[in-house]
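User: I'm putting together a teaching handout on how sequence relates to shape, and I'd like one worked example. Could you take Mitochondrial carrier protein from Anopheles epiroticus, show the sequence you're using, and then write out its predicted structure as tokens right after it?

Assistant: Happy to. First the sequence, then the structure tokens directly below it.
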Amino acid sequence: MMRKIIAGTAGAVVTCPLEVVKTRLQSSSSSFIHAAASSRHALVVDGGKLTDNHHHHVRHVSAINNATSASDRHHSAARHHQSRILAIPQCGLSTSVQSISIWQCLKHIVQTEGSRALFKGLGPNIVGVAPSRAIYFCAYSKTKNTLNTVGIIPANSPLVHILSASCAGFVSSTATNPIWFIKTRMQLDSNARMTVGECVRRIYESQGVRGFYKGITASYVGISETVIHFVIYEALKKKLLELRQSSPAAKALASGDGSAGGEGGKTSRDFLEFMAAGATSKTIASVVAYPHEVARTRLREEGNKYRNFWQTLLTVWKEEGKAGLYRGLGTQLVRQIPNTAIMMATYEAVVYVLTNPASASLLPTGASN
């Protein structure tokens, strides 16, 4: 357990800058959009030309003041289109427009707020990692074992995994939502260095205890991401096991007397396959369920524009189009996929050690560290 806590804490520290970028991009007042729109180098370019083919109208800010009314209309349309695209850097929704990179977003934060701003919300994140993962995996395992024991549903069926993941997500989200709410508020604070205590006090004074649970509905909807993730993960793991058992080498080993490589033994290849299955399943799940992340961030912002989950999704859709529902997706994938791959391999290693203590020495060195 201590190793998992240390690994989770290290992962939170390393990926915190990407978490800040993702949260800022998801918000309704992303500073990256305005910064990019005001810079000549950040104009949206397609093959060296502006998207509206009137690059001579927007070459310099001073030229705008002397342009004709017709060119003003062209420039206004181009700038509107540009801001909408820059709101979703690297999310893969546009193939003809090049957007600002994650590196440019990180550079902008350092230039305007200092390097310490890349680690805003790190405190609540570190505090929440250990209990969140512990609660989730505990609830998942308990629910899965209970459903398998009761026998109403076929053991280890996809439905068992769906119900187990749903229960675990509900319990974990409910227990840790205040921590993530504080983290989001601190990451969105771009004007002052707000401490955790100040953040808690401001939320409590303005909204009371209920304020710490804003966006909880979006978190519950986000359980679908976890469900999709674990269902695909279990299916891939089962398929990989079938392929392994049907291979000539496995059949030859099964017919011999090698017990170490039989049903109980694990090799480095097993854990590499777990990592690949975890990364693949998480990528698919993140893309499918990502809009709930944008809605959750908007609901956690200060103000009353966004009141509930469905109203938030509809508002974002109307004002920003479908692209607005996927703002920051690229950053999310870069941040989350490696972590998930390592986490799932670690989870399988821990489960293996706990259920096969006599075979723990058979674990490959790379998997046990």
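A couple of points you could highlight for students: The two ends are 13 Å apart (CA to CA). The beta strands are 45-46, 49-50.
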